[in-house]
Amino acid sequence: MLIARKFVLSIDGAGFRGYACLVTLHYLMKLLPPNVAGGTTRPCQVFDVICGTSTGGLIAVLIGRLGLDCLTAMSVYKDLVAALFAAVDGNGIIGGEGVPPNVFDQKVATIVEKYAGDKSAPMKISKTCPDKVDHNSTDTFVTVVPSTVGTAGAEPYRLRSYATPPGGVDSVIGHNWTICEVIRAVTALPGYIKSVDIGSQSFQDAALSGAANPVFEAISEVELRWGKQFEPSITSLGTGLVSFVSIDSDDELSDRDDEPVYDKLRRAVKSQHSRGMSRSDVFSEQLLRVAQDTELAHREARKQLSKRNLADNYFRFDPTGGLGDIRTSDVTQAAKITALTNTWLRTQEGTNETRRARHVLQTHLAEIRARSSSILPL
């Protein structure tokens, strides 16, 4: 029996390095047939579910819940991340509550109002109230963790744009998260950006809890919602952090030996140290842990899907050559990130993965459009 698939886009988080995910996604969308209006197909016209962690969660909201095309999302993302990191320049408070990103909050509200029609628009789409956003019924979720339990190993909550499936756990019972609240929670970096208070609880970015690569959350969500009726087809977007670790086996990662890893990381994550960003060495250590967790999640997901004979349903786009010494907060490096990402996409590794994904996504898109045309009124 042929089992149908649910197509999921999973997006890693790592500061402005997430721009590489949008570059990759735009590249993939341009390879697909144009939409009915003649423009480049939007991600929400291809994927059933879009999910992300940290700034990957921000991207997920932009292209999923708000239905933006990749080029528009790139512009919005750059503007928002610049405002987000401006809040912590000179205010690195490791171990403290972090600073409230007021300018970022204002920009988020403006963006949400522009594309959703109301700055207080809910994340969860109500069946009784028509949604103003054209997102082709794509579902979106992001991962956050409660700040009160610390970061290491905390089980992420999934903030969804759709009803919590049976067996799913709500972060706050009875609270209807707004899109603005979700964006703030998913970008609340422990020790730098203040967590988001909802009632008596606080929520923050899940990247430091081991969920920077949300691929297992993506696989789990398909199983939770559809059981064995559907198989997951996962397109996973990385941010080049794999270049910070060497792979000794499928199960073990270690620091690269060709250069002291913290020297390399300090250059890549240190944010305007001359302007007062404190303790970049701690941030470097955090990012190394994120890099290791991210690559381990990818390798374990690939292994598990292979055991289920679903290897052809999994695509990983992660520039193995890295993104150079680009700081996680440096939004002026969009052109360099674009160039390095496109260079990787043209390598044999990138070309092979692109070819595999293109074939599967084209077939899926053709099926979507065939179904849509068959139900159009005569």
Query: What order do the SSEs take from the amino end to the carboxyl end, as H and E?
Result: EHEHHHEEHEEHEEEHHEHH
Low-confidence stretches: 249-262, 268-278
Radius of gyration: 20 Å
Counting DSSP E segments of at least 2 residues, the number of strands comes to: 10
Q: How much β-strand is present in the residues?
A: 5-15%
Largest sheet, strands/sense/barrel? 8 strands, mixed
Helical content, roughly?
Answer: 40-55%
Termini, distance in Å?
33 Å
Would you tell me the overall average pLDDT?
85
Overall geometry comes to globular
User: Treating each run of at least 4 consecutive H or I residues as one helix, how many helices?
Assistant: 10
Oligomerization: single chain
Q: Which structural class matches the secondary elements?
A: alpha/beta
Name a few traits of the molecule.
single chain; 378 residues; alpha/beta; two-stranded antiparallel sheet; 10 helices; 10 strands; 13% strand; Acyl transferase/acyl hydrolase/lysophospholipase
Care to describe what's here?
The chain is of the alpha/beta class. Helix content is 40%, strand content 13%. It has helices at residues 19-31, 55-65, 70-86, 102-116, 179-186, 215-226, 261-269, 280-307, 334-345, 348-374; strands spanning 4-11, 49-53, 139-146, 157-160, 196-198, 201-205, 230-237, 245-247, 253-255, 314-317. The strands form two sheets. Strands 1, 2, 3, 4, 5, 6, 7 and 10 form an eight-stranded mixed β-sheet that branches. A two-stranded antiparallel sheet has the order 8-9. Helix 2 (55-65) packs antiparallel against helix 3 (70-86), helix 3 runs antiparallel to helix 4 and helix 4 crosses helix 5 (179-186). The longest helix has 28 residues, at 280-307. The radius of gyration is 20 Å and the shape is globular.
